[in-house]
Amino acid sequence: MLKDSAGGFEEESLIPRNRLFVLLDGTFVVRWDENEVQDLETGHYRPYEKRDFGALLTDYELNQLKSAGLVLNYDKEKVWLCPLPERVNSALATWEMRRARSYYLNTTLPGSMAEDIDDLIDYLGLHERFEVRVRDDFVVLWSTRGASFQKFDDAEKARYLLTSKMPEVFMNTVIAFIETTRRD
Description:
This protein is an alpha+beta fold. The protein has 2 domains: 13-88, no CATH class; 100-181, 2-Layer Sandwich (Alpha-Beta Plaits), CATH 3.30.70. It has helices at 59-67, 84-87, 90-98, 114-123, 152-165, 167-170, and strands at residues 13-16, 20-23, 28-33, 36-39, 45-47, 53-56, 71-74, 78-81, 99-110, 131-135, 138-142, 174-181. Strand 4 (36-39) and strand 5 form a beta hairpin. The longest helix is centred in the last third of the chain and has 14 residues, at 152-165.
């Protein structure tokens, strides 16, 4: 169950949208106070420092969370979170066992810079390792031939490669993912 603003619990948690974000490690969280966040998937609390911040969530990511049963609804300013009991019901638990994450890199640069980033990737000699695309008006990078990074560690290695070669351009790059359902 998620905390409400008074520190109690309620069936539907309404929070300001800017308190819901993704950490650099790819974890979706709610920030309850200056130094604490709650993992949306597990409900576990963990310490938070500003350096852990990845990016605010896009509509696309919120739709993914809605499909996963973690978000009831959202608008430009607010997000309604599902109560914990609904997130662990048997149908969702079955779905979670079959879901798979496909990782990519969100540069957090505006989509209008896609051509420039594509040219930069060529200049760095990395055109065979990355494909530049635009998602939710951000420049994102996929692996070779537009495939996703299959593991978080692979995406982190790719992020590190970019930040080491051109830190002034890629320093705000975060790991993002989409969730799909595996067919058994």
